Amino acid sequence: MLAHWRLERPMVVAHDMGGATTLRAHLLHGCDFERYVLMNVVAMRPWGSEFFDHVGRHVQAFLGLPPHIHRAVVEAYIEGAIVNDIDPADLESLVEPWVSEEGRVSFYRQFAQADERYTAEIEGLLADIRCPVKIMWGENDPWIPLERGKALHSLISQASFETLTGVGHLPQLEDPDLVIGRLDQFFHHT
Questions:
Q1: To pair with 40 at 20 to 30 A between CA atoms, which of 4, 21, 149, 171?
Q2: For the chain, where are the E strands, in sequence order?
């Protein structure tokens, strides 16, 4: 992606699995970043919840769900990440990609393909991040609890850390003004 857009040192905001992806790009593949925000990211083991593990072991059973029940599963799964009401259009934009036939297969396949080795390979390298780092974490994240963010911070000594009060796993949708304000401070005023 960086080569395609001819980006040499972008400012990066990573969320959820974007954490594992961008950390691997930076630490294993030499991608340099100007500044780097890790927000409620998958960055270290263990991954997932009991539901996540269960679906990963039983993908074929879930693929047989009728479309209306599949939609309800997707909606409940996403709603389980947030602790505040979000704009219904934002919720629908999160659900919609997963309800087509192709999306349904991809939704369940992601659980089966999740592999902790992707973060195991970088856990010992986290102190080697080569740019300013800010970790921001939703205080009430039900998917990746605040303690995981604090543990990540302990491995990236040069990072600053901020708890985002009153939000869950999707701070960018639960309190966008808060997130934009913090990003602006980090990217432009420090």
A1: 4
A2: 11-16, 35-41, 133-138, 160-164
pLDDT tens for residues 149-159? Answer: 999 999 998 99
Give the bridge partners for 161, in sequence order.
135
CB atoms within 10 A of CB 60: 9
Sign of CA dihedral 79, 81, 84, 86: negative
Say whether 47 sits in a helix, a strand or coil. Answer: coil
Total-model pTM: 0.94
Residue pair 45/123 in contact by the 8 Å Cβ criterion: yes
- What the chain holds in terms of domains, given with CATH numbers, is 11-47+117-188 (3.40.50.1820), 50-113 (no CATH)
Output phi, psi for 136, to 5 deg. Answer: -120, 135
DSSP H or E run through 73: helix 67-79
**Lookup result for tokens 């599963």:** 73
Report whether 156 contacts 66 (CB < 8 A): no
CB 159 within 8 A of CB 134: yes
- For the stretch 46-81, pLDDT in tens is 987 888 889 999 999 999 999 999 999 999 999 999
